[in-house]
Structures
1.
Amino acid sequence: FGLFDWEETVIADDPGFKASSPLSRLDAFFVHERGGLRFTEYNAETPAGASYNDILAEATLGLPAMRAFMKQYEVRPLPSRHNVMHALLDAWQQFSGQSKARPRIAILDWSDVPTYSEFVLTQNYLHDQGIECVIADPRDVEYRNGKLVAEGVDIDLIYKRVLINELVDRCGLDHAVVRAVRERAVCMVNPFRCKILHKKASLAMLSDEAHADMFDRDACAAITRAVPWTRVVRERKTTHDGEEVDLIPFIVRERQRLVLKPNDDYGGRGITLGWTVNDTTWERAVQDALAAPHIVQERVEIPSEPYPSWVDGQVELLDRQYDTAPFVSRSEYMEGLLTRLSTSPLLNVTAGGGSTVPTFLAEPR
């Protein structure tokens, strides 16, 4: 999985509950003609977008256009944030041994992140459900007298939106949050051990023929169907479409069909789409991938649909590529979707050129 030494240390800690990633999101593309869903990443650490999805759905349902649409179609939203709350409470009940007590929650991330508005939406929702919640910057919390203190109050549970590697890089392993979690003074969702599956090498572990004997026949079939060919970038022999290849020369040669991704990053940072660059840029990206942990992944067909867009004072129908990213809670349940539109083949709102839209199930009346 490409874990660093300090990550190996903290993932050994028991988080106090069963699921290693109570809250996660599978980034996927749905192409019906090509066999359905293809999963390209697993956000097992800080999945964003659940509250945005629900609020956008509520706002969209109230639009006059939807009122007209719903005369012909039965429309059902796919809410997500209720299961965020249930996953947090479930982890807390396992951690504390208290089946009915409500924890005081801190949503933890840097105060200047672009997703801060979603923290406010989530905080308001939790307050409406009778749960105390504050929003805190890791730099402003303290660990004293066996309690983690944020915004002047003792915290029982951290809803962690800050990335673990950013927290450690900026604040160190001796930071108040790290110490409080490791000493079981506070419950944290997602826990440190989420880093194992959050690494992009997790998909390489699934699809690499070297690990096929870890899975039964049905699991192997599901992996082949849903996970694109993925390998950790290093000098080795492997197989592609049943034939043995020398991995690095193969990557260099097959630029048009491959993607290079850092093993642990987000927001589209460091990703190189082979078909969008020239040979020189690609070869340089391959050398960079050999120097730091990366994966290589086979290109997945990205679906597109015409969407209405407001351009220069008028509505135009323009093709937008889109992904379908189901939220997964408690490692078992799919609850709602994050759908992103983009004019770029790199579908990531943080990376620019994209937007988030609500998702509904619609059936003719």
2.
Amino acid sequence: MRTLSSQVLDHAGKSVVLRGWLHKKRAMGALMFVVLRDRGGLIQIVVKDEAEQEKLRGMQVGTVLEVTGKVKAEPRATGGAEIHEPSLAVLVPVEAEPPIEIDKPIDHTPDNLDTLFEHRVVNLRNLDEQRIFRVREALIGSIRNFLSQNEFVEIQTPKLIAGATEGGAEVFKLKYFDQEATLAQSPQFYKQIMVGAFERVFEIGPAFRAEPSLTTRHLAETTMLDIEMGFIDGHEDVLKMTEQLVYSVLTSVYKDSKDDLEKLKAPELKLKKEFPRYTVAQVHEMFTKGTGQDTTKEKDLIPAEERWICDYSVKEHGCEAVFVSEFPVEAMKFYHMVNPDNPKTV
């Protein structure tokens, strides 16, 4: 029966069978140290026998191995144990030298992006790259749990649609049999339809916008969380639900994914259950006064203002999440509602 690397310590003193990928190997005198990777993590294997060492001659990272050996507790080793007296079997050999060293930090600088994209299947074997996916999985799972507990129904909406969902963004157009279609910018129309059936709905899915993905504010393809809820008394209900969602999800992820986030050098979470609130006009005024850059004529917040108000909120309130409301009516979309208390804003 196969044992995972994360279970090895439970079998100290016994023989186990491991299967996984060669993650690293190094020779030190008469010894060879092999690191095996499986879905449970990493485990070190100490190879003394020359015949066993010879089996790995020419084998590169990614080689699929089966290892039978005795578990020895070793506090200094990853997972608190290592494998001794191993018998090795090469299940799938990899003899080509890898283009990326997966046991070292991955270089994400622009000059290296072509290499990373070309060999994505290889760099995904780096543990830090995998941590990003694990944290993302925890985030999505936490979102689903919160919304399910608050009686939202998850939906999946079409991504090939007849026309643009909203203005202000370019769409990808394509031929759909004998008609023209577009890739969905958002599930806006569909989720509004579904509110009439279920009252509360949400979707976590892809959205497409024909924008060059060369800035931090533009993505040709992204994953969006869309929520719609009926029978509300006003926008305050939406703010409260959003506030509770963000607080619940982030505190949960920072707790459950603590080790992964620390290894990824994620910043400390600074969040409170109630978020500070400002109007667009207030942010313009505060930013202009604080920086000397006049933004009072801007319809929307500029990127520098968004960063500034969050930094300000952390210093003044200990909370990096901020609500900004009352945008100028000139910036409204057709589905926005004019503010009854201030018709110049939405």
3.
Amino acid sequence: YGQIFTSSLDVPSDHALRFTAHIQGRKEEILTQDSVGCGYASGYWQVNVGNFPTAWNPGDILVIHFTDTVSAEEAQIEIVL
């Protein structure tokens, strides 16, 4: 989980932020803000990595791609699990 801001340091509205998350090397297994255990509200996002169809391993890299549909800004982060 984490907090997100636009380049102008605003918080994207709940309906405007969309994200996809996958384990690096497994792009066919995707979680979104609408997946069970995942979500976005009031500037905070959450990804439940336990909900991927294939179990993750320590050292795997979680890739999350964010899109603010209002400002059209995009960002990507990578997190070592």
